[in-house]
Amino acid sequence: MAATKFEGWLGKDEKSVEGKMEWGSFEPKKWSEDDVDIEISHCGVCGSDLHVLKSGWSPTPYPCVVGHEIIGKAVKVGSNVKHVKEGDRVGVGAQARSCLQKDCPDCSTGAENHCRRANVNTYGSVYPNDEGKSYGGYATHNRTNGHFVLPIPEGLDSADAAPMLCGGITVFSPLKQNGCGPGKTVGIVGVGGLGHFGVLFAKALEADKVVGISRKAEKRDEVLQLGADQYIATDEDEDWAKKNAQTLDLIVCTVSSEKMPLDQYLQLLKTKGTFIQVGAPDGGKLPNINAFTLIASGIKVGGSAIGTPKEISEMLEIAAEKKVKPWIQKRPMKDANKTVVDMEAGKARYRYVLEN
Ligand code: NAP
Ligand code: ZN
User: For residues 198 and 204, is the Cβ–Cβ distance under 8 A?
Assistant: First the structure.
């Protein structure tokens, strides 16, 4: 068999986010028998792709191929990988490797997503020991450590499953871990790609009431159609924080702006409620929090990072069983530049999925 040729949309500098990625070939990480090569059929477009293309979080090691919501066919499977065989339909999310050592406090306790020793992102990471760089899914092929390559259950469409691998799991994990279920009222702030999954999965987990919270009233009908029981438009609904004060047990926030009305979001929590931030602003800054908002209601503020391979598999099973249907817009892979520009302009309803 001829060697696989890896080609994809290369971001070469900060301007690539303006629709200036260039198609070209790239050298994947050095092959190891722990790896799987995937022929990509679909890749979702995540808000994180934009942050990394423009070096918003930290300097990106250009050239960089973004995309970490990858579905495709395993075309080469390392001999140490036992749960995948050639020809299987598989997926890769935002993480490509961790140390997986028995003495790692994170990997040994099923928290690979928090591994501090050898965490490798699906794109934009440099592997240790001259193994090369990680390249993502706006491409023909991807190479990832088998531990992070997951079989996709039959009942799920590939284009629907792709954005679950990052967008879906990033909200599913904190919902699940913070008790989303019968008897709970849950708010999802920022109904974009992640946020729309927040509404879908909070419903699938059978929360009593799910409230979508975004800026504009124009999303109201769509968010209610998604399954939300209520919608709050923070730019337009008068006195929204006062009127809905102390109504939610749990909030998951996907907004990544330093200017978000954080203190008002927190006022929506009931006594002892929990607020989990997953949106990741450029530079990492959040607005100030008033200490008395925390103290008076005894609330907790936390964060969450994607999810583990085990959690992703569990989410995919629930999605298949409960027929969770994301709202996606498919675009041909050749239109990746236009898609990134539209995503940046907030036009996605609610997730673009690139298709080869
Ligand atoms: P997205 O589709 O653009 O959704 C973000 C939503 O936030 C928008 O739809 C927007 O909805 C809302 N928003 C509210 N205030 C905003 C403001 N001032 N500026 C911009 N948007 C505002 O993006 P996404 O793919 O869901 O990603 C959201 C964030 O999560 C990104 O920062 C991404 O990097 C991060 N992320 C984190 C993790 C993790 O592990 N923690 C994983 C994946 C992604 P309205 O216009 O309706 O207000
Ligand atoms: Zn993502």
Answer: no
Q: Whose CA is nearest to atom 19 of ligand 1?
A: 257
Q: Which ligand is nearest to the CA of 307?
A: 1
Residue ranges, CATH 3.40.50.720, the chain:
167-303
CATH class of 167-303: alpha beta
Residues forming CATH 3.90.180.10 domain(s) in the chain = 6-166+326-355
**pTM for this one?**
0.98
Question: For ligand 2, a single-atom ion, which residues have Cβ within 5 Å?
Answer: 46, 48, 166
| Both structure tokens of 135 | 């390249």
List the CATH code of the domain at 6-166+326-355: 3.90.180.10
Which of 115, 194, 306 should be mutated for ligand 1, with most atoms under 8 A from CB? 194
Measured from the CA of 219, which atom of ligand 1 is nearest? Answer: 47
Hey, what are 69's tokens? Answer: 């919501």
- Can you tell me the mean pLDDT for 130-148? 98
- Pocket around ligand 1 at a 6 A CB cut-off: 46-48, 51, 166-167, 170, 190-195, 214-216, 219, 254-257, 259-260, 278-280, 304-306, 346, 348
Of residues 203, 223, 229, 211, the one with CA closest to residue 322: 203
What does the pLDDT look like over 58-108, one tens digit per residue? 999 999 999 999 999 999 999 999 999 999 999 999 999 999 999 999 999
Would you say residue 165 has pLDDT above 70?
yes
Task: Using pLDDT thresholds of 50, 70 and 90, give the confidence band for residue 307.
Answer: very high
Whole-angstrom distance, CA of residue 332 vs CA of residue 330:
7
